[in-house]
């Protein structure tokens, strides 16, 4: 199958996740294009879609939102998966005992579940380096109170990303096998 892995990334952590997902799908025999959401011009040449974005203040980046919202019909007619990256640190639960990854789901997951019926939605941990902040984000680096509480480092869980990519590849193989059986 031909799969589009599209991403919206501000500092590169989400791009790295998208590239890793693309590599995993390629290793399992799929033809994959990995590209930024803003560079996607048409979807019709793909059989399936994996779309992800960094999340800021519980929202996907604008380019990812635009990609989904402008292509609802095309996405809803094909297998689609959504992912997000954002939380940093290693804690599994927050101060209230709630799952950190579940609590970091972007608002769009619920909305897009109704619109495009994704086969899976996943939140992955991100990466944070206050020395790489730019633009308006630099204010965080100047505020010691915020800077001190933000865990710094690369917290992406490559094993979890690989497992998710494998599950997508397996499901795509199942879809392909079912299509062959029904046409033959």
Polypeptide structure, described:
It is a single chain. This protein has 184 residues and is an alpha/beta fold. It has one domain (2-183): Rossmann fold (3-Layer(aba) Sandwich). Helix content is 43%, strand content 21%. The chain is built from eight helices and eight strands, in the order βαβββααβααββααβα. It has helices spanning 13-27, 62-70, 72-76, 100-103, 107-116, 138-142, 144-149, 158-183, and strands spanning 2-8, 31-36, 48-56, 59-60, 80-85, 120-124, 127-128, 153-154. Strands 1, 2, 3, 4, 5 and 6 form a six-stranded mixed β-sheet that branches. Strand 1 (2-8), helix 1 and strand 2 form a beta-alpha-beta unit. The chain starts with a strand and ends with a helix.
Gross CATH architecture:
3-Layer(aba) Sandwich
CATH top level is: Alpha Beta
Q: How many beta strands in the DSSP annotation?
A: 8
Give Rg in angstroms: 17 Å
CATH homology-level superfamily: Flavodoxin domain
Strand content: 15-25%
Main pleated-sheet profile: 6 strands, mixed
One letter per element, helices H and strands E, the order comes to EHEEEHHEHHEEHHEH
Mean pLDDT comes to 88
Number of domains: 1
Q: By helix and strand content, what is the structural category?
A: alpha/beta
Quick overview:
This protein is of the alpha/beta class and 184 residues long.
Write the layout of secondary structure elements.
Elements: E1 2-8, H1 13-27, E2 31-36, E3 48-56, E4 59-60, H2 62-70, H3 72-76, E5 80-85, H4 100-103, H5 107-116, E6 120-124, E7 127-128, H6 138-142, H7 144-149, E8 153-154, H8 158-183
Parallel strand pairs: 1-2, 1-3, 3-5, 5-6
Antiparallel strand pairs: 3-4, 7-8
